[in-house]
Amino acid sequence: MSTGNQGECAPVWNWLAASPFSDWAKAIKKAIFSRGAAMVNVRWLRAAQLGCLCALLSGCALTGGPAERATREMLDPATSQREELLLEQRLVALAPESDRFLQEAFFPVGLYDVPEEALPEIAAAGFNTVVNGGKDAPYLAQAEALRLRVIPYIDTAHMAADVASAAGERNLFAWYLFDEPDLNALPPTAYSALVKLLRAAESRRPIFLTVQSPDNYAAYVAGCDILGVDPYPIQHREPELNDLRRVAQWVEAARAAAGSRPVWAAVQAFFAEPNWPRNPTPQELRAMVFMALNHGASGILFFSYKSGDRPITQQAELFPAVVRLVGEINALHGALLAPTAAVELNMEVLEEQAPAAASPGRKDRAPLDCSLRAFLDAQLFIAVNPDSWKKTVRLSMPPSVVGKSMQELFPDSPQQQPLNVPRSYPFSISFEPFQTRIFWVR
């Protein structure tokens, strides 16, 4: 009977023999048949196979695919902050397999220079990161209670002491080693020497670095884990004289220099005369944020807590605009980590009202700054008018969008109705000055 029973169950045995539990399956099979033919029956074989199958399925659930394993390791409290950052990059690279896990990844939405007493208000506004925050125990304890990560400056003269005092501080996420070394007379060789000293003191936390000029990104980027860019284009009171496309250009240049390193964009949310004579308007601010995201920024940092002579929380127009953006980023952050698709969008300006004072060449550039990301069962389409004038544009969308509907998110005002674009392309769409429009495509 043993030979016949083996033959009857052979397909399942063969399948198990090719599984990760092949050694176990073979051992069970050998043990059963060593009892003698008279003692072997189909029921025993079926039970043994069922046990192997259950173990196999349980093992698959525990190990998962590469994206699930990377997510589990990324969220493990024993994983260092620097390893977490690398695992997040791996997760992004595994898209679309990893789409359902991207919401678990950390997307920094930060504010610079927040004093300890303002931490509760900033956390309540939806921020999750403070840049140039405190590194003393009371500051870090309150930040941790509020689920805020902190990136403080490290004292370059006493790095070992700062590292020692930060031991065990999980929410001290990264070290801000230097701000704009190219602007502050620290050449790349001297900066690299600081990096070497910090890496010798500890390697568990990432190094955050901002470089002022795109021409210098490549010279400094090897000495950081996160490259920050800080284009602050609101340098004139007249909106038509400010070129917001600089945000997109600097993020593009940073990503080209950074390789696989994440690029975070510091966005102007301040004024400081004489160089920056006014705050950005809510429309300008939103355009800058979403242009940075269109070009692959994986973190948004608002500079800064203080604007002019008052905290940002006391800026009647600016702070509500910032809080709105924080909410939008948090709502979309899984999709915003998904890679942008390399697509060509055909655009034709049907109507525009460009002022004569617009800088030369502005009207010759692409009329909209756009991105398209595939995420789960949909696509996220973001279109920004980077100019200070109204325009109507005819868009011809790529094949992946043709035949699908577009539903607009986050209308600019309660009075504005969300636009549901019909299943026909190309279509015409109008923009107010600096307006950003965001759509789910399904």
Shape: globular
Structural class estimated from helices and strands: alpha/beta
**Order of adjacent strands in the largest pleated sheet:** 3-2-1-8-7-6-5-4
CATH classification class of the largest domain: Alpha Beta
How many DSSP E strands?
Answer: 18
The biggest beta sheet, please? 8 strands, parallel
Which fold name fills CATH's third level, the topology of the largest domain? TIM Barrel
Q: What is the architecture of the largest domain at the second tier of CATH?
A: Alpha-Beta Barrel
The helix fraction, in percent, is 25-40%
Low-confidence stretches: 1-8, 33-47, 52-62
Estimated radius of gyration:
27 Å
The number of helical runs is: 14
Count up the domains.
3
Which superfamily, in CATH terms, is the homologous superfamily of the largest domain?
Answer: Glycosidases
Task: Provide the β-strand percentage band.
Answer: 15-25%
Average pLDDT figure:
86
Task: Compute the separation of the termini in Å.
Answer: 59 Å
TL;DR of this structure?
The chain has 442 residues and is of the alpha/beta class.
Q: What features would you describe in this structure?
A:
The chain has 442 residues and is of the alpha/beta class. It folds into 3 domains: 2-63; 80-337, TIM Barrel (Alpha-Beta Barrel), CATH 3.20.20.80; 346-441, Golgi alpha-mannosidase II (Immunoglobulin-like, Sandwich). Helices cover 36% and strands 18% of the residues. It contains 14 helices and 18 strands. The chain has helices spanning 2-8, 10-17, 22-33, 42-63, 66-75, 81-93, 119-124, 137-145, 159-165, 188-201, 217-220, 245-258, 282-294, 318-337; strands at residues 109-112, 129-131, 149-151, 175-179, 207-210, 226-229, 263-268, 300-303, 306-307, 310-311, 346-352, 369-375, 378-384, 391-396, 406-409, 420-421, 427-431, 436-441. The strands form 4 sheets. It has an 8-stranded parallel β-sheet with strand order 3-2-1-8-7-6-5-4. A 5-stranded antiparallel β-sheet has the order 12-13-18-15-16, covered by helices on one side. α12 (245-258) runs parallel beside α13 and α13 (282-294) runs parallel beside α14 (318-337). The protein is globular. It starts with a helix and ends with a strand. Residues 1-8, 33-47 and 52-62 have low confidence and may be disordered.
